[in-house]
Amino acid sequence: MNRILLAALLFVLGCHAARGLAQSAPQPSLTDQLLAEGSRTLAAQARERGDAVRGAILFSTQSLSCTKCHAQGAVDLLGPDLTQVSADRNDETIVEAILQPSKSIAKGFESVKILTLEGRVVTGRPIRQDNDTIVLRELSDTNRVIELAFDDIDLLEPQTVSAMPTKLADQLKDRQQFLDLVKYLMDIAQTAQAPNVAASMHASRSTSLDPRIHGLVLMDQFGCVRCHGDNAAAPTMHASTPPKQAPVLTAAASRIDPHYIRRFIADPHGVKPGTSMPDLMQHLSDEDRDAVSTAITHYLMSLSKDPFKRGSIDDQSAARGRELFHSVGCVACHSPRGKDGDELMADSSVALGDLSQKYSVDGLSAFLENPHSVRPSGRMPDMKLTHWEAVDLANYLVSGAGDDADRRPMQTDPERIRSGRKSFTELGCVQCHVAEGGQTQQVQARGRADRYPSLAELNTAQGCLSAKSGAWANYRLDDAQRDAIRVALQSSAATLDDREHVVLTMATFRCDRCHSRDGWGGVSDQRDPYFHTTNENLGPQGRIPPTLSGVGGKLRSKWLRDVLVNGRSIRPYMNTRMPQYGAANVAHLVDRFATVDPKPLVEITETQDPKEARQTGLELVGNGGLNCIACHTFQHKPAQTMPAVDLTEMAERLHREWFYQYMVSPQLVSPGTVMPSFWPGGKAIRKEILGGDPNLQVGAVWEYLLEGRQARTPRGLQLEPIRLLADQGRAVMLRRSYPGIGKRGIGVGYPGGLNLAFDAEQMRLAMIWKGDFADPGGVWRSQGHGTVRPLGSDLIRFPPGPDLDDAQSPWIVDEGRPPRHQFTGYDLDDIGRPTWTYRFGEIEIEDYAIDSKDTDADQAVLKRTVTFTSKDKRNNLVFRVASGETVKAIDQQTFLIGESLRVRVDAQHQAEVEQSETGMHLVVPLSLPAGDTTLEIQYRW
């Protein structure tokens, strides 16, 4: 009997052990699960149960990025155009291509690994080669094309591994998504050749300009026509755009340090390398240069009502300004800067010089807020900065002014003012600058033909175009610039056509720094990292300004004018802003674009019943049709996955012909777009709607979009929130992005109905609220790139920056991670409530919060216990407890934050109120002894 019981006991223990081993064994990945099923089974299931529309959307999402390598019409990407029929492609090989990409690599799409003589390793697909060079599409960055000379190659090895990533299916949520994706690829495989549409893949970026146009751009930059007008060159150069005017100087000495003005006039190229301001005194002695520059400075000071005041720098404002400078588009033209302020791309950027020596914060911020008041020619565009953005940017650009700046006040002298006014005229400053009278004084000096001959009469080997010194303007031109200007002068009588005027305007205003057109211009590889988006799902089109190739055939003239002149925008997800150059400077582009860019030639079948077509279009746009509403904004309401351009503005923006072409072949028209093709190869995915006729389906969608703001709401837009709630008696936690917190946000829902979000990037309590916990739909429906939305009510936010910091040298808050802080994790108590653990220098911190009930007041209370452990004594610390617009003391330990939050600090500590530009803060000064110190705080609201 005992043996039987023992055997039974051993059997039971063995079962428990086996179950424990099974539970601890890692779960197979989705790819492994699918491989176990076999390609034949999966292919049959996809054919029967897959949804091609959902698959088309998956094909274009950022998480899979299929369109980066398989764009329709592409010939030089890492993968083949899947709309082209392949004789050896069938349902099973499609499944295998995803799950086992290296099993069979398409011919011509093999990769090679190259070792250069310098030791550089490059892996990519060869897309072109000749006897001397090989061109690769790099595997690690699908946007990068590398050209290598065979003479520089040490070793070239063919690769047997596909460029297609392994375990790609693991990016999908589940098996059904895999079946949907395969079904879409099956539909593509069944299509015929792609339709012939009036579009092509754009050529690679080129920075070269026609020498004549380059010369005209330089002549505008240096203001040649200001002195050498009166011939055919002026109409040729400025048939569309007024000539450049130098800065208005009537109040220059109020915003610019007079000491800087004097030095700049005396030696413009030494003070600001790369300036377009010429040296007008190279023929004078050093003593005379100093005397003349001082006199002109006194003259300019006499024109300013207010004296120059340098002021102080706000470090927090400067930190915000640094972020603005590197995100809104300033660095498209000006050099990005390192942490020490050094210019990283000075040689390829528009010069700024040392602004810390030049401007006051007030002077620069006023200029940035309204640059056209000082530079009416628009070469410095209006970046649509708010007043406070301009102040932040000015603080950043002027930061560093100090010890070496000349602080001595400069008093004006009447005699020097008279002398300076005379020199200002005699040197020719009046030709370009407005100082007095509200206009330049070209006419006054033009009568001296011996000094200012017309452009047609210039000797291009002498004067400004020579490398010699003399009594003429010295622009420090290099040989290439001189040659380009000579070419422009020799052909100045020939008029430019509309297409050339477009290029000239784009080059003059540097539109090509952001926009490409016909293979020219566009964001350079070096500046690409500074173009950002608020939604990664949109891919490059969410952060890179759109191409202007064919833009006249794409956009309606009224909309194009609104963009160019009024700054209208449909891309709020793009951080880079569309600059404003002024109507007089760029409005002519509206008509020129329309002239040189014809509408696409497409076949359009007119609908016989617009009302019925609109109803069908409503069905197609909704989630029961093509599910456009899954990605596109509708009447400013965000979509499930990404904020693509608003559907209700499309018909107002676009020409119908362009819309038809784009819908059928989106990747061909706009390479890199995440817009899926619902008519691959000209065949409809939704064959049951309108007989599967692509023209009728696209026409129905267009008829629906013509309703604009009055269009009926499609199915699938308004989604019920996903409610994540604390279990009864147990806390719930979710690590994701939250509003105002980066990707390291950690939310906690307490069973008592209180909630908080902790910022593990900056070690702070970021927000608290009551009621239901959170809606994670923004994350789960957007492939992990969205944010969690707090539910409930009474949400209270706290500002960025670590709660614990040094009182004397706190971290200057930005969006990054404090360098002296480190998050080390968390521990959970028996009902799932976390204790955050983090470190500040050598100090270890445990931060634990629980929800409690104040029975006397019948109110929930959040009790927070923070324990500091220090090896040594540490003084001059401060712990931020809460922040708000107002902080009022109720008693020695209790404070009212804003109108509703009451905070109580334990009796062992004394809280203080601090005031800053961001509001008021309740803080606890800390002097920590060696060992443990505990701070207890209560929040009730």
UniProtKB/TrEMBL annotation:
Give any Pfam family that matches: Cytochrom_C
Name all Cytochrome c domain ranges.
Answer: 50-189, 210-300, 316-401, 494-597
Question: Which keywords label this protein?
Answer: Heme, Iron, Metal-binding, Signal
Write down the superkingdom of origin.
Answer: Bacteria
Which region is the signal sequence? 1-17
Family annotation (PROSITE patterns): CYTC, PROKAR_LIPOPROTEIN
Report the InterPro entries cross-referenced here.
Cyt_c-like_dom (IPR009056), Cyt_c-like_dom_sf (IPR036909), Haem-bd_dom_put (IPR013427), Multihaem_cyt_sf (IPR036280)
What PANTHER family does this protein map onto? Answer: LARGE, MULTIFUNCTIONAL SECRETED PROTEIN (PTHR33546:SF1), LARGE, MULTIFUNCTIONAL SECRETED PROTEIN-RELATED (PTHR33546)
The protein here is known as Cytochrome c
User: Can you name the source organism?
Assistant: Stieleria magnilauensis
The taxonomic lineage of its organism, from the top, reads: Bacteria, Pseudomonadati, Planctomycetota, Planctomycetia, Pirellulales
